[in-house]
Amino acid sequence: MKATTQNSILLLSLLLLFACSTPPAEKETEQEPAEMSSLDRKIQSAISQPLVDHMYTADPSAHIFDDKIYIYPSHDYDAGIPENDLGDHFGMRDYHVFSMDGPDAKPVDHGVALDVDEVAWAQRQMWAPDAAFKDGKYYLYFPAKTSEGIFKIGVAVSESPVGPFTAEAEAIEGSYSIDPAVFEEEGDFYLYFGGIWGGQLQSYRDNTYSEDNKEPAPDEPGLGPIMAKLTDDLKEFAEEPKELQILDEAGKPILAGDNERRFFEAAWMHTYNGKYYLSYSTGDTHFICYAIGDNPYGPFTYAGKVLNPVIGWTNHHSILQIGDKWYLFYHDSSLSKGVTHLRSMKMTELTYDENGRIQTIDPYGEE
User: Of 174, 179, 213, 333, which alpha carbon lies 20 to 30 A from 225's?
Assistant: First the structure.
């Protein structure tokens, strides 16, 4: 045992001597850094960061209520549903409301404002919402699928901008498809909505559903978003919903095959210098585009791109004036490293040129 101990000590001494005599460059070889992926480069060069990182949020609708910014996004989570073109993997089930004291402030999460279990007519997929305020009450508009798998649009009411909201017992009569967006002008309120593919708009003609209805052929006019004026209590349509026309520079309807300009989903309305700006997503080409008209009903003439494609598949936005500046609220999938259905809301400044044209935004700088 004693000889073994002495041999061990001798061996340890030799190892230490060898280590000390080895040149530093030979003791440790530095590894070359791995080449940064194109996704990581985009994330690093992003012009804005996710507004919140404790949960996934998408489709942010932003408003000023009582001199504070309120954001009404959808809430992404992994529902374990395989991805498909109809968006079944977007399995959202509730809404959180966020507030900000100013554009540079950290958003405050006010918790669950409405859950699908609190909506009698809804079964699943609480997609992109929007909100409005009138006479001391706040109205949350949201799409959801019924037990028959058909999207309808509902409304819920609260005395607080952050909820909780109490849903009406039935969906808005005559409503369909997805992506409600509210526009208010001089006390009148209008609801814009609609989205093709998973949003089911292609199944409707003249507000009537049929499984036989399909998307128009590429050389036919594309489907436009739908809009209707709301009743005084903001709970129903005051008129038959109408399809909006989006025209090209020659005054002809944008064709269904013009994928970089045609409407897909996510209609939003705002005004600037007396003109009406209808902005929307092109879906499978991933742009936010806009068209300009002279009244809330259009027609609207295509004017350009608001936002170039983001990380992820979808994009959905809102445009809001805060003080003397304008801001675009949008989302991407940077926080989830590109997972399509796990998105994060963002915001960035938006500018117009001297002719009222929106300056196209590159979400990751000029590439």
Answer: 333
Question: Strand pairing of 318-322 and 300-307?
Answer: unpaired
Is residue 168 helix, strand or coil? coil
Report the distance separating Cα 336 and Cα 55, nearest Å: 10
Q: Are strands 242-243 and 325-332 parallel, antiparallel or unpaired?
A: unpaired
- Which ranges of the chain does DSSP label H, i.e. alpha helix? 2-21, 24-27, 38-45
The amino acid occupying position 293 is: G
Secondary structure of residue 340 in the 3-state scheme: coil
Catalytic site residue 232? no
Other CB atoms within 10 A of residue 271 CB:
12
Return the bridge partners of 349, or none.
327
Contact predicate 73/58, CB 8 Å: yes
Cβ neighbours, 10 Å, residue 357: 13
Known catalytic residue at 265: yes
The whole-angstrom separation of Cα 205 and Cα 223 is 10
Q: What is the mean pLDDT of residues 88-93?
A: 91
Complete domains list, the chain, with CATH: 38-350 (2.115.10.20)
Omega into 299 within 30° of 0, i.e. cis? yes
Backbone angles phi, psi at 304, to 5 degrees: 145, -170
**Catalytic: which of 59, 76, 179, 243?**
59
Of the listed 76, 258, 265, 332, which one is catalytic?
Answer: 265
**Residue range 116-154, pLDDT digits in tens:** 999 999 999 999 999 999 999 999 999 999 999 999 999
Residue 69 tokens read as: 């910014």
